[in-house]
Specification:
Blueprint: H1 4-9, H2 14-37, H3 41-60, H4 64-91, H5 94-116, H6 141-144
Helix pairs in contact: 2-3, 2-5, 3-4, 4-5
C-alpha cells in the first residue's frame, strides 16, 4: 500500500518533484533544529544526513551539458548549502540551520514559480546569485579534523 506522500506525488511533474525534494530538505533541517534544542546529537546527525542526501541527489541529477548557466548556479548553490549545513551541524547552531532554511526556501519558491508557469525555467533564480562561493563557506581546516555530522 502506497503512503499518502507517495500517492500525493503520483502524476507530479518533474518540477513538482524538485519542489518536494526542497520541502524534504527544509523538513529535515527543522528536525535538526529540534534535535539541537533537545541536545540530541544522534537525532541531529540523522536529520542532517537526510538533508545532505537530498542535496547530493539534486546535485547528481543536474545536467550541466544542457542546463547551461542555471545548472551551474544550482550546482554552486547545492555545494554552498552542503557546506553550510555541515557548519551548522558542527557548531550545533540553530541560527545557522535557520539561515540555510531561508536560502533553500528562496530557491524552492523560485521552482514553485517555474511550476506555475508551466515548467518554463527563468534565466536563474535571483536568490541563488547571492550565495557565497563554496570556497568562502568551508569549515576552518583546523576544526575539520574533529568534525562530525
Amino acid at each position: 500500500m502506497a503512503s499518502y506522500q507517495e500517492r500525493a506525488l503520483d502524476g507530479a511533474s518533474p518540477v513538482d518533484l524538485v519542489v518536494a525534494l526542497y520541502d524534504g530538505i527544509i523538513r529535515f533541517l527543522y528536525a535538526a533544529i529540534e534535535a539541537v534544542e533537545r541536545d540530541d546529537v544522534n537525532g541531529r546527525r540523522v536529520a542532517v544526513k537526510r538533508a545532505l542526501d537530498i542535496l547530493i541527489h539534486l546535485q547528481a541529477r543536474l545536467r550541466m551539458d544542457i542546463g547551461g548557466r542555471p545548472a551551474l548556479v544550482l550546482s554552486e548553490f547545492y555545494a554552498s548549502m552542503f557546506a553550510l549545513i555541515l557548519q551548522a551541524s558542527q557548531s550545533a547552531s540553530t541560527q545557522r540551520f535557520h539561515d540555510v532554511i531561508g536560502c533553500v526556501k528562496n530557491i524552492r519558491d523560485a521552482w514553485r514559480q517555474v511550476a506555475s508557469e508551466g515548467g518554463r525555467y527563468p534565466s536563474a533564480p535571483t536568490s541563488a546569485k547571492r550565495i557565497a562561493p563554496i570556497s568562502q563557506s568551508k569549515p576552518d581546516p583546523e576544526q575539520a579534523s574533529s568534525w562530525t555530522a
